[in-house]
Design a protein that fits this description.
Layout: E1 2-5, E2 8-11, H1 34-41, E3 46-54, H2 58-74, E4 81-85, E5 98-100, H3 103-108, E6 129-131, E7 134-141, E8 144-147, E9 161-163, H4 165-179, E10 182-185, E11 189-194, E12 201-206, E13 209-211, E14 217-222, E15 226-234, H5 241-249, E16 261-270, E17 280-286, E18 295-302, E19 306-314, H6 324-331, H7 335-341, E20 345-355, E21 366-367, E22 370-372, H8 388-406, H9 412-417, H10 431-438, H11 441-448, H12 462-477, H13 517-522, E23 536-537, H14 543-554, H15 557-561, E24 567-571, E25 579-583, H16 593-597, E26 604-605, E27 619-620
Parallel strand pairs: 3-4, 3-15, 4-10, 7-17, 15-22
Antiparallel strand pairs: 1-2, 2-27, 5-9, 6-9, 7-8, 11-12, 12-15, 13-14, 16-19, 16-20, 17-18, 18-19, 21-22, 23-26, 24-25
Helix pairs in contact: 2-4, 2-8, 8-10
Length: 627
């Protein structure tokens, strides 16, 4: 359903309660008919390309653009670059409301019609960005908001820009296509194709379409296809399913810290004119989070009357009764936020996991046949609360180094004429990409702040100790110390049993400033086919077994960490537990929190069919826009 609010187009969808049943309805492959088995195992068509990029976010598109720029400048423009994106439209899986540091964009587009007469600015259409004109950093306590000195890394005034990242990605996709990049939205990539010896990546395969909830092919069944590439860039974003696979297979975390994560939850509001201050940015610490929960709030005023408000909660919290979603709803009632939102209209909602590990948690970036770029590797600068510029730069570095190798090889057409099947004689292992990263400003930037996030993990000092040390690092030390703090074990393993923690009684939503989770999810535009195989996998899809392992110890943590109401424990007198576990997979907004935080580590997030999931948009109307 589409509706207009002011100058905005808003997509909403009713919240679904269709759920996976307690016992699996899936038919084992060996019990399917011979015809069904043949359909599911038939040979897939193969397309051969020079670069295959899995994920059409800022990193993936920056890599594609840079590679084609080099091809058009130094080659003959015939090298094939394919971007495969699971979202139905480019940008619709990208959470809106971001502060952009223009450094990487300026390097990608050194000449732009959008620069001012002095060559300054950001190479994006002016209607997509709002320059930061004022900012505040506050510590919230009770109903008070105390000013806090702003670390130099966080300063945005007169140099950075507020934008809807979904719009920016859509614009970047258009630029990529103009250069000759083949951009395919609505394509889920579900499988990595390995060489015969299993020691290199040949490419990827797209997900079969038209699989019913029983796992059987429907009348609409379409077999996926394979993309074989000289280099495959994994740009899936934070905790991508295939990135996770190659990290484990090629042991890319050996000698590196575990990744630690946060959950970012955002809303976009249209506020009253008297409450809108274009170009204003605010960040807050303290309330509503306790001293032992890492995180903070933010508020950005951009466009015409739009305000993005949000909260990031570190997923290394210990109390299983913590609900990041409820903490966010609670935060909005603090006078500092409420005075802006009062009388306004919430028009969209989104949530996404974020990498918070920093430099210590960046894995090895390359392996035979491919590499990790952007949030698939984890280049977010946590103190800056920014990762788009570093993600884009990583994609550009990988593209430069891949081009240096691929330009030396016979073209795809020459291989076809000679009937040569192999794209490369030996898999390309881009060691040079890792070297380039370590020599880049990404590394310098992350190295300077490497100790700030882990300093909050001290079990005795908690957040207060982290703030004191962070102030010292930000203003004086600036990373010039001989020590590097390590991160803890995985976020999941830190979760305490429920009987060691105090339950949290969150206030009920008022329907004006705070909302129930069903209402929020309806604002995401999320869609999954009701008759589709569940993409949230537990072993043998045995929900009863999961409940037996998880519920007695953590008392329904899944229903609290999920910001979309996907997981529920409902009363069931027939169950020995008194409850049954169900998965409302149709409501999944692809945040990946379940895969990260569930203490049993038996929920595996996989890609659903292409085009499924949220549809995050914050698009200004133009004269030729359709309803």
């Amino acid at each position: 359903m589409h509706s207009k609010i002011g100058s905005l187009r808003v997509t909403t969808r009713s919240f679904s309660h269709t759920a996976v049943k307690l016992s699996s309805v899936e038919v084992p492959f060996e019990k399917m008919t011979h015809e069904q088995q043949e359909m599911l195992t038939m040979e897939r068509p193969v397309d051969k390309v020079d670069i295959c990029i899995v994920g059409g976010g800022p990193a993936g598109l920056a890599a594609a653009i840079k590679f084609k720029q080099l091809d058009n400048e130094r080659g003959n423009g015939d090298l094939r670059v394919v971007v495969l994106e699971k979202a139905p439209d480019m940008g619709s899986h990208i959470v809106s409301g971001v502060i952009l540091e223009p450094k990487a964009l300026r390097e990608l587009f050194p000449e732009s019609e959008y620069y001012d007469e002095n060559g300054e600015g950001i190479p994006l259409p002016e209607e997509l960005v709002t320059k930061v004109e004022s900012e505040q950093l506050k510590y919230l306590m009770g109903n008070m908001a105390f000013p806090v000195p702003e670390p130099p890394q966080m300063v945005n005034k007169n140099k950075n820009y507020i934008a809807s990242l979904s719009q920016v990605v859509r614009y970047l996709a258009e630029q990529a296509e103009e250069l000759g990049v083949e951009v395919f939205p609505g394509i889920s990539v579900s499988e990595v194709i390995y060489g015969e010896d299993g020691k290199s990546v040949l490419g990827v395969a797209t997900k079969d379409m038209g699989i019913s909830k029983t796992g059987e092919p429907k009348d609409t069944f379409e077999r996926g296809m394979e993309f074989h590439a000289r280099q495959t860039f994994f740009a899936e974003g934070c905790h991508g399913s295939l990135s996770k696979e190659v990290i484990n297979k090629f042991k890319l975390r050996e000698g590196r810290n575990n990744q630690t994560y946060g959950l970012g939850i955002k809303e976009v509001w249209e506020v009253k004119p008297e409450n809108f201050h274009k170009g204003f940015v605010a960040h807050t610490m303290g309330y509503p989070l306790s001293n032992y929960v890492y995180g903070g709030g933010f508020m950005y005023h951009f466009g015409e009357g739009l305000v993005t408000v949000g909260l990031v909660v570190g997923l290394d919290y210990k109390n299983p009764y913590v609900s990041p979603y409820q903490e966010f709803q609670k935060m909005k009632h603090h006078p500092y936020y409420k005075k802006i939102l009062d009388g306004g209209t919430c028009i969209s909602y989104a949530a996404r996991a974020l990498n918070e590990g920093g430099l210590q948690s960046v894995p090895k970036l390359h392996f035979p046949g491919g590499c990790l770029i952007g949030a698939s590797a984890g280049f977010m600068n946590v103190p800056k609360i920014k990762g788009t510029h570093t993600a884009m730069k990583s994609g550009m570095l990988a593209a430069e180094k891949a081009f240096e190798e691929i330009i030396k090889l016979p073209s795809l057409s020459e291989l076809e004429e000679s009937e040569t099947e192999q794209l490369v004689e030996k898999p390309i292992n881009l060691v040079s990409y890792e070297t380039a990263f370590r020599e880049s400003w990404i590394y310098q930037e992350l190295n300077e702040v490497r100790n700030i996030r882990p300093s909050f993990g001290n079990p005795i000092l908690g957040g207060y100790g982290g703030m004191v040390y962070s102030g010292l690092e930000s203003f004086i030390l600036k990373g010039r110390v001989p020590w590097t703090f390590n991160h803890h074990a995985s976020d999941a393993t830190l979760t305490k049993p429920a009987d060691q923690c105090k339950p949290i009684d969150y206030p009920k939503p008022d329907g004006k400033i705070s909302f129930d989770i069903l209402t929020s999810v309806s604002r995401t535009g999320t869609y999954h086919d009701d008759d589709e195989k569940c993409h949230l996998r537990v072993p043998e899809q045995d929900l009863e077994k999961h409940a037996k392992e998880a519920y007695p110890k953590w008392k329904g943590i899944e229903s609290r960490f999920c910001p979309a109401g996907v997981y529920e424990y409902v009363e069931d007198e027939a169950s020995p537990l008194g409850v049954k576990f169900q998965i409302n997979s149709q409501n999944c907004i692809h945040c990946k929190t379940c895969d990260i935080k569930v203490p049993t580590q038996d929920i595996n997030w996989e890609v659903p069919e292409g085009g499924d999931g949220p549809k995050y948009t914050c698009l200004l109307y133009t004269s030729d826009a359709a309803d």
